[in-house]
Amino acid sequence: MRLRRKLSFAATASLALLKLHTSNADPRYLERAPLGHFEVDYHSAFRMMRTDDYCSSAIEPESPIDLRVSKAHASHGYDTVRISIVSYTATAPMLTRLKDPEEQLIWDHSAPFQYRWTSQFDTGVKNARCVGSSEEGEGSLKSYSYTWGGYSESPAPDSKCLFDCQGLDECNFFSFYHNHTTKESRCELFKSCTECESTESVGLLQSPSNLIQDKDNNTLVFNNSSFYDGWTTTKKYGKSFIHTALVKIEPGRDNPFQVDGTQFNVKIPLDGSTAKFVAWGDPCISSKFVGCSFGKYFDAYEKSVNMINTLAEVDGDSGFDGFIMLGDNFYDSDGTITTSFWKRLTLKAMSKPLIYVLGNHDIWTGGAPAAGEVYDPLQYSLQYFGIDTVVSKENGNYFDYTINPDSPPPGSGKKYQSIEATSSIKNSIGWYKFGGFGILFFNGAYSADQMLPYFQEACDFFHESVNEEETLLLIGHWNGNETIQSWISPYGGQVVTPRARELLLDLPGCSHIGKRIIYFDGHGHTNVMVPGDNGYLAGGHGIMGMSPHNFSVPVAADYGFIFTRSSPTHVFYCQEVFSPTTSLPSDVNEFDPETINDENHNAILDCVINSGIDKCVFDLCERWTYFGDEEEERSVPDVSDNNQATLSIDNRAIIMFAC
């Protein structure tokens, strides 16, 4: 085993950050906050245990089954949910309704993922290289070298290597080497890997005589310069399959089911009764693909997992009913980050009905259509979450796969960049009733003309189902106002959420609901009420809010979640962590972690464990104005600059519009 001296990358990080904010050549750079950069040591955010052979950081899942639950589209009736299992085998598990007598149910759709995220991987073992296999002559599949062309070519240096392993059924491991200065890389694919060599991640080469040998003793010659280099070995969990079914349940009570011996309960509130949601947007826990300003500082991975699992443990009336994710979910290109999070969720957490919308980074990893490329998710990360949409309304299917993003239909626009060339709009829009809320979720990357027919159908439903005391909750990603369309457009948003609300107000069936139409969105990296638009921004969950002009002015280091309940409607903001705005520098090396205050995160956890959710929300969270109450006055912030509106709440200077 050869050990190499490890060097600090502080100086290089500073230089990289300087280049980051002065270069306009690559649209991805515009998405990088000053406190963010590509993390060489991105693995450390996940706190994974290496296996004894040093070849895997695979997580032992909290639950024996990888479960998804969502409310079914309105056309299937109030008493229908979608239950899904994500697995690594084509063999469908047995789904049983536990009643007297038991009833075995049939999956409506059981198939492998298509186009993207077709396999799942761990996040890799840093400083490890596969050197041995138990299958002599069958371990190594192929190896090759290439020069990474930067973010305009792929979201990360190892994207090509992972894609190749994903496309080979027999590939179960890959070892990847990257020189962070010369960008030279090497990929080695393996059928099996039973022995890994531990290596130091940093080497200092000063002359061509410093050569590196690959596993076949071939010499890799690199430029005569100092560089940071390192190997990472990544394990494939397996190919991705989804097994999903629409199932009738009895609202207002626990409905017990079993999948291959694992029991779980599914529950939705009675129609018109109190419904409670936890919502967050833009969760950022790793800087592998996009600069995650506070993911590591705030320990966003552990805090997010612990909070949602703790909240889910509360049973009965003091618990919550559903979980909303508002887009830019983990800033994940290939599914490795998302998988690492979902494996940490308990069965109770996964049993909560999920509402999931796409953000710009969930479609184009770099955040902008102009940066779209073959390695991006291109909406197909949706397969992983088991959401029921208008697709099932039309033919009962789970997903519309008619658009192949690698070979889009003629006239759909530029491949990997036009939203119409990625996936069907039907996969990302849906509506239904949930307790005392009408729910409408949508994808703002499409145009108003494309969405209006669906909005009108939804309003026809809400006209009959949402009464004068209930609230219509609109759920999107892009925040802002169309007066700054030039600011929104580069990041793929054609209809920002406030604009979508305006569209609903003009449609028969929704216009009578009026100010009781409120919205949740993300995109702006902070958490704040938006009084002028009847909305609530919840995009502060690990990434820093920035001035929209040049990404050089940090304005918010705010982390938390929204808690809302219906019948009557209340909205609370539960701030977990913050750093005072006055403490925010523009350079990562100048940030003082001592300024971070996470006392409320710990207080909420302790309180929920001892007293349930409701009491803790009222005691420890900030009650925000519900804009549907006639007696409450609303004030519109003074917008002296058409590009930005700001207001100050406590320790938070808040931006209205951001990426």
Summary of the model, kept short:
The chain is an alpha+beta fold and 659 residues long.
Molecular structure report:
- This protein is α+β, with helices and mostly antiparallel strands.
- The protein is 16% helix and 25% strand.
- Strands 6, 7, 9, 10, 11 and 15 form a six-stranded antiparallel β-sheet that branches.
- Helix 8 (448-465) links the parallel strand 23 and strand 24.
- The chain is globular and about 65 Å long.
- The relative contact order is 0.13.
- Mean pLDDT is 82; it is low at 1-38, 201-228, 482-487, 547-552 and 631-658.
Key descriptive features of the protein:
659 residues; alpha+beta; 6-stranded antiparallel sheet; 6-stranded mixed sheet; 12 helices; 34 strands; 16% helix; globular; disordered N terminus; disordered C terminus
